[in-house]
């Protein structure tokens, strides 16, 4: 299956990549309503927002010419 796109869903956490992501979550790992569970959900949500933002940005510049793309990337780097 080398080079194929793999998609795996594990207990509500999904991963799509060439190398499958293995996450094992047991019932006893996170107790319902615990701070750890709340923090996990909050951090996963933050990561997903970043990924969605990057994908949307990538879609916006698909049709741009290379010079404009380069200028946008340099603009992002200069802000940091």
Describe the sheet with the most strands: 2 strands, antiparallel
Distance between the termini: 39 Å
- The level of helicity is 40-55%
What is the approximate shape?
elongated
Q: Let me know the average pLDDT.
A: 71
Radius of gyration from CA coordinates: 18 Å
Strand order of the largest sheet: 1-2
- Strand segment count: 2
Unreliable stretches (pLDDT < 50, length at least 5) are: 1-11
Strand portion: 5-15%
Structural class: alpha+beta
Order of helices and strands: EEHH
Please tally the helical runs, counting DSSP H or I stretches of 4 or more residues.
Answer: 2
Q: Could you describe the 3D structure shown?
A:
The chain is an alpha+beta fold and about 80 residues long. The protein has a domain at about 35-80. It contains two helices and two strands; from the N terminus they run ββαα.
Indicate the topology.
Elements lengths: L5 E5 L2 E5 L17 H26 L5 H14 L1
Antiparallel strand pairs: 1-2
Task: Provide a quick synopsis of the model.
The chain has helices at 35-60, 66-79; strands at 6-10, 13-17. With 80 residues, the protein is an alpha+beta fold.
Keywords:
alpha+beta, disordered N terminus, 2 strands, 80 residues, single chain
